[in-house]
Write a structure and sequence with these properties.
Blueprint (H helix, E strand, L loop, with lengths): L1 H9 L4 E4 L5 E4 L1 H7 L3 H4 L4 H4 L1 E2 L4 H10 L3 E9 L6 E9 L7 E7 L1 H45 L7 H26 L6 E3 L1 H14 L6 E5 L7 E3 L1 H18 L6 E8 L4 E3 L5 E3 L2 E7 L27 H11 L3 E7 L2 E8 L4 H8 L1
Parallel strand pairs: 8-10
Antiparallel strand pairs: 1-2, 1-6, 3-4, 4-5, 5-6, 7-9, 10-13, 11-12, 13-15, 14-15
Helix pairs in contact: 6-7, 6-10, 8-9, 9-10
């Protein structure tokens, strides 16, 4: 029996033992993290009251119980209701020796797809760096000459012709600004990681936003005060949060909107790389807005360079955000429908050895 308990606790995915009345009998540690609740708290509660599945599944679940056959459901959005859902695969099977009891395992699919996307983003970012280095000297210097010549010409032109020189100057400066933004990929130094109170970073970003681009927004704090210290570069993490707040503010109605900054701890969130190594990312920060949402055509590529949902956007802000989070060995994901867009940052906590050094 002890061996069975050890196996149950060691399962790396959320797993639930469900009784004859669809009530939770037991949940493993990964399942507790998924629900953000203890096994004692959820024991006896109906499973479908705690977990939302985009596809109606209760009837198929009952049929699998009656026929004592396994059930597999792939690529469905699953969530505990309190957070944005993840695309998952569901594995359901009857428990041998216990009639009417079923085992439900939830395997998030988001990580596998985003791992490939993360690699693509890095490759695309490297291409952007190479392009910037090649074009910066060849384009920025001539543009400076064109801008200077246009300004000299404007001194002797009539008011009607000044529109043309003003256009040349404005467009030249716009192109230079675009090149400078692309160059940020190459100029961004490696993060200077140290213990960071993530709420200090969030507060700095919130205050800055309310004094500038987000003055028309209502920014709500929803923090877990018990969150341990993160491990990262506070200035770079500030840049990430400011960028996400700016995007949400610019996408909102000019009359204003709501942004909620939500922090919480999810001890079961772990990123496993292709080389077999893993990284625990228990610190979660969500930037949630009630704007129009991401356009369908760019939702899957939103972290790629030059992909933007705004008419005059460069498409470099979120690519830079993705690069910074990747350099922190963290994770960023997005879930978006009209009226509810969630950017989720998953970050590592301070290593245990460093925690001991800090407290000694």
């Amino acid at each position: 029996m002890r061996k069975d308990c050890d196996i149950w606790a060691s399962l790396p995915v959320p797993a639930f033992l469900i009784g004859v009345n669809d009530a939770i009998v037991d949940v493993n540690s990964a399942g507790e993290g998924f629900l953000n609740a203890s096994a004692r708290t959820v024991s006896g509660l109906p499973i479908w009251d705690l977990i939302s599945v985009e596809t109606p599944i209760a009837e198929a679940f009952d049929k699998a119980r009656t026929n004592r056959t396994p059930l597999f459901v792939n690529d469905v959005d699953v969530g505990p209701g309190s957070r944005a859902p993840l695309q998952c695969a569901l594995q359901i099977a009857p428990l041998q020796g216990c009639p009417g009891h079923m085992i439900l395992m939830i395997t998030p699919r988001e990580l596998a797809g985003r791992m490939t996307q993360s690699h693509s983003v890095k490759s695309a970012a490297q291409s952007a760096i190479g392009m910037a280095e090649m074009l910066a000297h060849e384009i920025k210097n001539p543009l400076a000459g064109i801008t200077g010549a246009a300004q000299l010409l404007s001194m002797s032109l009539s008011k009607e012709d000044l529109e043309l020189t003003d256009l040349i100057v404005a467009e030249s400066r716009r192109i230079v600004k675009l090149l400078e933004q692309v160059e940020q990929f190459g100029n961004l130094s490696a993060p200077d990681k140290k213990p960071v109170n993530i709420h200090d970073v969030l507060d700095r970003a919130r205050r800055s936003a309310l004094l500038g681009f987000g003055a028309h927004m209502k920014i709500i704090e929803d923090y877990d005060p018990s969150l341990p210290l993160a491990y990262g570069d506070p200035d770079q993490l500030l840049q990430v949060v400011l960028n996400l707040l700016k995007n949400a503010s610019e996408a909102a109605d000019p009359k204003g909107g709501n942004i909620r900054i939500h922090s919480y701890f999810e001890h079961s969130f772990r990123l496993r790389r292709s080389d077999g190594t893993g990284q625990s990312l228990p610190l979660q920060v969500e930037i949630i807005d009630d704007g129009p949402g991401l356009p369908d055509k760019i939702r899957d590529d939103i972290f790629d360079p030059f992909v933007s949902g705004r008419e005059n956007g460069t498409g470099l802000g979120l690519a830079l955000v993705s690069k910074i989070i990747s350099d922190h060995d963290g994770w960023i994901s997005v879930s978006s429908v009209p009226g509810h867009t969630v950017f989720r940052l998953s970050l590592p906590r301070v290593p245990r050895g460093m925690q001991l050094e800090e407290t000694s």
